[in-house]
Amino acid sequence: MEFGLSTEQQQLAEAERLWLVRHDPIARARDFLDSAPISVDRAAVAHAADGGLLGLLTADIGGSHMDLAVLGEVHGYAASSLPVADLAIAAGLLELARAPHAGASAEGQALWGVTWESANPALSAPVPMPADMDGVVLIGGAGDGEYLAVVENPQWVPMRTLDVTRSWGRVRLNAAPLRRLPLPAGSVGLTHDAMAVHRALDAIGAASRLLDMTVVYAGQRQQFGVPIGSFQAVKHHCANMAIGVEAGRSTLWAAALALDTATTPQERSHAASAAVAYAKAAAAEVASIALQVHGGIGFTWEHDLHLLLRRIKVDQALNGTVAEHRAALVT
């Protein structure tokens, strides 16, 4: 299979990258480190709403998961607190179920997350930036019995995670009765696959930034009067990081394309699990190597490396671990 980004997708990614550079989410995250859990940047919400990014998967915008993939990776690179993929998927689901909140969600007037039941029946699966969400869409069921439940003003159970660039929480599901709206058969499986792919894209975006940071550092840090990047071992480290990022990105692009074009659910889910398992493992390895090459400075609170490493570790644990996606490939 041959595929690549269209000119429009490249322009979309570049425009979003430039906006995030100007507004620097990491600098903003550091303002929260010693005070309170980070919140969503309202300027980012307004920007995303004005550009139609939150309604990307709705009929009016007519975007694709491939379009959303380039956005998600850029936001992962910037360590943005705006969960752009979660919000766009939620808006698409609300429209699909003909929920009255669809328009407000797509236009950024209200922020909606996506979740489902977890192993604990009283709590939902984790949702990013819970304090900023006006509600969540809870998906469930199978076959012709698939549904979406709109949970307004949910009761949140905060989570403590390694990630300090985003906050996380679970919905208390037994707090109020849920009104279910029907979804077309196959919607739940597609959503699970999409959430897994876009979570891994966030991790690869963060890994890509660690690669860039490491290459720059290896060219600046000197030992024995020469840059450490001139040492063969460090060159190999950087090369392995580049392979992990590029191969992970490519597999996830293929998975995003499968979300849009796969002819069967099995084909789509296989592509998603294969890509997510590889990309999450690769991102974690890139983070480990980045820490090794940076040496002592990489362990300091003041350096940005640990912010991205923490984000990758949490991405790796959510929406299916590497082991879970590998297992899905052989069942």
Description:
The structure is a single chain. With 331 residues, the protein is an alpha+beta fold. The chain folds into two domains: 176 residues, no CATH class; 143 residues, Butyryl-CoA Dehydrogenase, subunit A, domain 3, CATH 1.20.140. The protein has eleven helices and nine strands. A hairpin with a 6-residue loop joins strand 3 and strand 4. The chain is globular, with a radius of gyration of 20 Å.
Terminal-residue CA separation: 25 Å
Oligomer: single chain
Major sheet, described briefly?
4 strands, mixed
Secondary structure class reads alpha+beta
Looking across the biggest beta sheet, what order are the strands in? 1-3-4-7
Tally the helices: what do you get? 11
Radius of gyration, rounded? Answer: 20 Å
Report strand %: 5-15%
Envelope shape = globular
Q: What order do the SSEs take from the amino end to the carboxyl end, as H and E?
A: HHHHHHEEEEEEEHEEHHHH
The count of domains is: 2
Mean pLDDT: 93
Helicity level: 40-55%
Topology, element by element:
Layout: H1 7-23, H2 25-32, H3 42-50, H4 65-78, H5 84-96, H6 102-106, E1 112-116, E2 127-128, E3 135-140, E4 147-152, E5 156-159, E6 168-171, E7 180-182, H7 187-220, E8 222-223, E9 226-227, H8 232-261, H9 265-294, H10 305-317, H11 322-329
Parallel strand pairs: 1-3
Antiparallel strand pairs: 2-6, 3-4, 4-7, 5-6, 8-9
Helix pairs in contact: 1-4, 4-7, 5-7, 7-8, 7-9, 7-10, 8-9, 9-10, 9-11
